[in-house]
TrEMBL record:
<feature type="region of interest" description="Disordered">
    <location>
        <begin position="359"/>
        <end position="385"/>
    </location>
</feature>
<dbReference type="InterPro" id="IPR005338">
    <property type="entry name" value="Anhydro_N_Ac-Mur_kinase"/>
</dbReference>
<keyword id="KW-0547">Nucleotide-binding</keyword>
<keyword id="KW-0067">ATP-binding</keyword>
<dbReference type="InterPro" id="IPR043129">
    <property type="entry name" value="ATPase_NBD"/>
</dbReference>
<dbReference type="GO" id="GO:0016301">
    <property type="term" value="F:kinase activity"/>
</dbReference>
<keyword id="KW-0418">Kinase</keyword>
<protein>
    <recommendedName>
        <fullName>Anhydro-N-acetylmuramic acid kinase</fullName>
        <ecNumber>2.7.1.170</ecNumber>
    </recommendedName>
</protein>
<dbReference type="Pfam" id="PF03702">
    <property type="entry name" value="AnmK"/>
</dbReference>
<comment type="similarity">
    <text>Belongs to the anhydro-N-acetylmuramic acid kinase family.</text>
</comment>
<comment type="pathway">
    <text>Cell wall biogenesis; peptidoglycan recycling.</text>
</comment>
<keyword id="KW-0119">Carbohydrate metabolism</keyword>
<keyword id="KW-0808">Transferase</keyword>
<comment type="function">
    <text>Catalyzes the specific phosphorylation of 1,6-anhydro-N-acetylmuramic acid (anhMurNAc) with the simultaneous cleavage of the 1,6-anhydro ring, generating MurNAc-6-P. Is required for the utilization of anhMurNAc either imported from the medium or derived from its own cell wall murein, and thus plays a role in cell wall recycling.</text>
</comment>
<feature type="binding site">
    <location>
        <begin position="9"/>
        <end position="16"/>
    </location>
    <ligand>
        <name>ATP</name>
    </ligand>
</feature>
<comment type="pathway">
    <text>Amino-sugar metabolism; 1,6-anhydro-N-acetylmuramate degradation.</text>
</comment>
C-alpha cells in the first residue's frame, strides 16, 4: 500500500507529511520511504492553536472551529502529497494524527486525550480512506496513549545485542528502550522544546517562537539555581510508562521556576537546554542504554545536540537518518505505519510501552465512498424475502 502519514506535533511548527510504501512480508513489515515534506500551518491558524492550548481558557465554539480548520489544513496537505509525492498511482490510505490540544493525566494515569482535525475533510478532499484518532483506544485499554512511537521503534531496533534507545525530541521528548533481555519500555522523559519555545516567544526570539540555531543558548551559561529548581519536578522520578505534555510544561510553569531568581535571558535558554539534555540522559542511564538513535525538531538546535552528546557519554548519539529515516519525518512515517497496521487488522500498540492491558488496534477509519445501494429489502422471518 501507498500510505500518507500526517502529523503536527506539540510545537505546532507545521504538518509533517510522509509517503511510504508498506507491505507485509512473512512476519515482518517492510517500509520503503518515498518522500516527505513539511507544510507550514497558515500563520493565523498556528496562533489560534497556540492560544487555545492549556492552561488558556477556551470555548466549545473555538474547539469546533479549530477542529474544522485543522481538518481542512490536513486535507490540503494530503491532497498536495497525492499530487506531488505519490509515485505513479494514487495513495491507498491517509493516516492523520491531527493536533493534540489536551492530554488528560490524573494521578499518573491517562484519563483521555484529544486531537483535533476532523478527518471527514481529508476523506472528502482526497477520496481516500482515512485512519484517525490513533491514541484513544490505547487510553481506553488502560494505557498512556503515548508514546506511540514505541511501535515503530520496537520493530525498527529489534535484534540488537545491547540496549538501544530511540529518542524523539519534539515539544515533549520521548524515549523507547529496546533490550535483548527484557520487554521494551517507552515514556515521555519531559520537556523537549516546549519550555525553550515559550522562552523564545517571551524573550524576543522573533515570531518563529524558537531559538534559531540555538544562538541564545550557545551565548548563555547554565544557571545552577534554576536548573536545580526545574529538576526537582516529581515527574522525572516517576516510573515508566508515563506521559506528559504542555498541560504541565507551559508558560506558568516556567514563570514559577523563574520566580525570585535573577537569570540573564541567554542563561534561561542555556539552562533549559541543559534540562532537556540531562533528563534524557538520566533516563537512558537508568535503563542501561548503550546507543541512542535520535529524531525530531530538537536536533535542529546545535546547542541541544552538543549538550545531549555530553550528557549521554559514553553512549553514542546517532541521528535516525543513519538508519534510513530522516529525523524530521520519522513521526509522520510512524503514523503511516500505525494506519497500515490498523487497515490490516494488526494491533498498533506495544502494551509494555504504553502501560495498556493489551495491545490494541489504533484509530478509526473513515471509509472510501462506494456506490449508493439501489433499494432496501426487508427480511422479516425464516423464508421471507
Amino acid at each position: 500500500m501507498i500510505v500518507i502519514g500526517l502529523s503536527s506535533g506539540t510545537s505546532v511548527d507545521g504538518i509533517d507529511v510522509a509517503v511510504a510504501d508498506l507491505r507485509l512480508a512473512g512476519g515482518d513489515v517492510v517500509l520503503a520511504p518515498i518522500a516527505h515534506r513539511e507544510v507550514p500551518h497558515p500563520p493565523a491558524l498556528r496562533e489560534d492553536i497556540l492560544a487555545a492550548l492549556p492552561p488558556a481558557p477556551t470555548t466549545m465554539a473555538e474547539v469546533c472551529r479549530l477542529d474544522t480548520l485543522i481538518g481542512q489544513a490536513f486535507a490540503d496537505a494530503a491532497r498536495g502529497a497525492i499530487a506531488d509525492l505519490c509515485p505513479g498511482r494514487a495513495a491507498d490510505l491517509v493516516v492523520s494524527h491531527g493536533q493534540t490540544v489536551y492530554h488528560w493525566i490524573e494521578d499518573g494515569r491517562a484519563r483521555g486525550t484529544l486531537q483535533l482535525g476532523q478527518p471527514a475533510w481529508i476523506a472528502e478532499a482526497t477520496g481516500v480512506p482515512v485512519v484517525s484518532d490513533v491514541r484513544a483506544r490505547d487510553v481506553a485499554a488502560g494505557g498512556q496513549g503515548a508514546p506511540l512511537a514505541s511501535t515503530f521503534d520496537v520493530l525498527w531496533l529489534a535484534g540488537r545485542d545491547a540496549p538501544a534507545a530511540a529518542l524523539n525530541i519534539g515539544g515533549i521528548a520521548n524515549l523507547t528502550v529496546v533490550a535483548p533481555d527484557r520487554d521494551p519500555l517507552a515514556f515521555d522523559t519531559g520537556p523537549g522544546n516546549a519550555l525553550l519555545d515559550i522562552a523564545a516567544s517571551r524573550l524576543g526570539a522573533g515570531a518563529e517562537r524558537m531559538d534559531r540555531d540555538g544562538r541564545r543558548a550557545l551565548r548563555g551559561r547554565v544557571h545552577g539555581g534554576l536548573l536545580a529548581r526545574l529538576r526537582e519536578d516529581p515527574y522525572y522520578a516517576r516510573p515508566a510508562p508515563k506521559s506528559t505534555g504542555k498541560e504541565v510544561f507551559h508558560g506558568g510553569y516556567l514563570d514559577a521556576a523563574l520566580a525570585g531568581l535573577d537569570v540573564a535571558e541567554d542563561d534561561v535558554f542555556a539552562t533549559l537546554v541543559e534540562l532537556t539534555a540531562t533528563t534524557i540522559a538520566d533516563a537512558c542511564a537508568r535503563h542501561g542504554v548503550a546507543e541512542v538513535v535520535a529524531s525530531g525538531g530538537g536536533l535542529r538546535n546545535p546547542a541541544l545536540v552538543a549538550a545531549l552528546r555530553s550528557a549521554l557519554g559514553p553512549a553514542p548519539l546517532r541521528f535516525s537518518d543513519s538508519l534510513g529515516i530522516d529525523p524530521d519525518a520519522k513521526e509522520a512515517y510512524l503514523f503511516a505505519l500505525l494506519g497500515f497496521l490498523t487497515w490490516n487488522g494488526i494491533p498498533g500498540t506495544v502494551a509494555s510501552c504504553t502501560g495498556a492491558a493489551r495491545p490494541t488496534p489504533v484509530g478509526r477509519i473513515s471509509p472510501p465512498q462506494r456506490p449508493h445501494p439501489g433499494r432496501l429489502r426487508l427480511r422479516l422471518g425464516p423464508g421471507a424475502g
